[in-house]
C-alpha cells in the first residue's frame, strides 16, 4: 500500500511538472497578451545608451554625480525585511535615501547592474562601499554580523531611492509587453551571461519615471556564480562562474542558453517551488540567433577596461577583476560566433 501511494504521488508530481514547463517563454497566452497590451503605452525595457565606448562603467547608471560620499555620515532609518539578504534604509547628509544591502550579493549585484546598463537596460543606481558609517543604527534582526561595534557596516551595496521614481508593480518573464522582441530576448540572454539564477517576479519592477514605465530586473544579486541546484548554486564566486557553461545548444535559428534554477532533487517535496524554478529554465531557451548576435555586437563595443571597471566598482580584488573580465569577454565572443 505504501509503495502504491508513493508511485501515485510521483506520477502526480511528474504530471504537474510536465504541465508547468510546457508553456514556452516566448508565446504568452491570450489573457497574457491582453494584459500586455494594456501596459504598452510609454512602456520601455531598453534604451539605446548611445556611444558605448564613452560609457563610464565604473559609476554606472547614476554616474559620479549621484555616487554616495564614501566618507560621509548616514543616518539609520529602519530595517528592510524583504528578500533573503539583510538590508536597511539610511539617509545621507543631503537627504538622499538609500537601501544598504549586505551579505553575499553586494559585489555581484553592483557589477551586474553596470553590464546591464551598458547593454541598454534600465537598472537601479547601485554603488559599492567597503564600509559605511551609520549613525543611530539599532540591532538588526538580520546581518548584525556585518556591523561592527562602532556602527560601521562592512561590504555594502547602496541603492539610491530617488523620490521622483515610483514603483508601480512587477512583471513576469512569461507575459509582459515585450515578449518576442529583440530587446526582451537580449535581457533573457543577459541573465544567462551573468548567471543570474533567481528570476522570481518579485525581483522585477516597473518604475514610473517622467511619464514612462521602465521595466527592469531590480535584484540581480544572485549572479556571477554557479546556477546549479540548491546545493551547488553560488553568488559572486569567480571559480564557479568560470567553470560554468554559457551556451547549451544551437538548433537551427534558435539558441538554448544554460540556466539551472530547479532545486536539489530531494527538495521536490516542495512541488510549487520545484515547478516554478523548473519553468524559469525556459527563460534562457529558444532565443533567436539573430537576437543573440545583436546583443553580442552591442557588448563587443565595450573595451576591456570598461568591463574591468564593472568589477573594480564592485570591490573585487585585482585578480578577481581580471578573471571575471576574461569570462565575460569569452561569453561576448561566443554570442558573436553564432
Protein topology:
Blueprint lengths: L1 H20 L8 H8 L5 E2 L29 E7 L6 E5 L5 E5 L4 H13 L7 E10 L16 E9 L5 E4 L12 H12 L10 E6 L2 E6 L20 H5 L4 E5 L2 E4 L13 H10 L6 E2 H11 L4 H9 L5 H19 L2
Parallel strand pairs: 1-9, 2-5
Antiparallel strand pairs: 2-3, 3-4, 4-6, 5-6, 7-8, 8-9, 10-11, 11-12
Helix pairs in contact: 1-6, 3-8, 4-7, 7-9, 8-9
Low-confidence stretches: 1-37
| Helix-strand makeup class | alpha+beta
Q: What amount of the residues lies in strands?
A: 15-25%
Q: What form results from the Cα inertia axes? A: globular
Strand order in space, largest sheet: 2-3-4-6-5
The Cα radius of gyration reads: 21 Å
Percent of residues in helices: 25-40%
> Cα distance, first to last residue?
54 Å
The count of β-strands is 12
The total number of structural domains is 1
Name the average pLDDT: 87
Count of DSSP H/I helices: 9
Notable characteristics:
alpha+beta; 5-stranded mixed beta barrel; 4-stranded mixed beta sheet; 9 helices; 12 strands; 32% helix; globular
Amino acid at each position: 500500500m505504501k509503495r502504491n501511494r508513493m508511485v501515485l504521488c510521483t506520477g502526480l508530481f511528474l504530471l504537474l511538472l510536465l504541465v508547468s514547463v510546457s508553456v514556452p517563454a516566448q508565446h504568452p497566452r491570450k489573457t497574457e497578451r491582453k494584459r500586455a497590451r494594456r501596459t504598452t503605452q510609454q512602456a520601455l525595457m531598453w534604451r539605446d545608451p548611445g556611444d558605448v565606448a564613452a560609457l563610464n562603467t565604473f559609476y554606472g547608471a547614476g554616474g559620479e554625480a549621484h555616487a554616495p560620499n564614501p566618507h560621509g555620515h548616514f543616518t539609520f532609518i529602519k530595517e528592510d525585511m524583504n528578500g533573503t539578504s539583510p538590508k536597511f534604509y539610511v539617509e545621507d547628509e543631503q537627504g538622499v535615501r538609500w537601501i544598504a544591502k549586505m551579505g553575499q550579493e553586494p559585489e555581484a549585484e553592483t557589477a551586474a547592474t553596470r553590464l546591464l546598463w551598458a547593454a541598454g537596460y534600465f537598472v537601479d543606481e547601485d554603488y559599492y562601499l567597503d564600509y559605511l558609517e551609520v549613525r543611530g543604527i539599532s540591532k538588526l534582526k538580520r546581518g548584525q554580523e556585518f556591523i561592527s561595534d562602532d556602527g560601521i557596516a562592512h561590504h555594502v551595496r547602496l541603492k539610491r531611492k530617488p523620490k521622483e521614481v515610483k514603483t508601480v508593480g512587477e512583471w513576469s518573464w512569461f507575459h509582459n509587453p515585450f515578449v518576442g522582441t529583440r530587446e526582451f530576448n537580449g535581457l533573457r540572454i543577459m541573465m544567462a551571461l551573468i548567471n543570474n539564477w533567481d528570476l522570481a517576479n518579485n525581483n522585477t519592477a516597473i518604475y514610473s519615471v517622467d511619464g514612462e514605465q521602465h521595466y527592469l530586473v531590480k535584484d540581480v544579486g544572485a549572479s556571477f556564480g554557479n546556477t546549479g541546484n540548491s546545493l551547488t548554486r553560488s553568488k559572486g564566486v569567480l571559480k564557479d562562474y568560470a567553470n560554468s557553461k554559457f551556451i547549451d545548444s544551437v538548433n537551427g535559428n534558435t539558441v538554448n542558453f544554460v540556466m539551472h534554477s530547479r532545486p536539489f532533487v530531494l527538495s521536490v517535496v516542495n512541488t510549487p517551488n520545484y515547478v516554478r524554478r523548473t519553468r524559469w529554465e525556459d527563460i534562457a531557451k529558444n532565443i533567436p540567433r539573430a537576437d543573440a548576435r545583436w546583443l553580442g555586437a552591442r557588448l563587443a563595443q565595450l573595451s576591456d577596461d570598461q568591463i574591468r571597471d564593472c568589477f573594480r566598482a564592485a570591490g573585487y580584488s585585482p585578480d578577481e577583476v581580471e578573471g571575471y573580465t576574461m569570462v565575460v569577454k569569452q561569453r561576448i565572443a561566443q554570442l558573436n560566433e553564432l
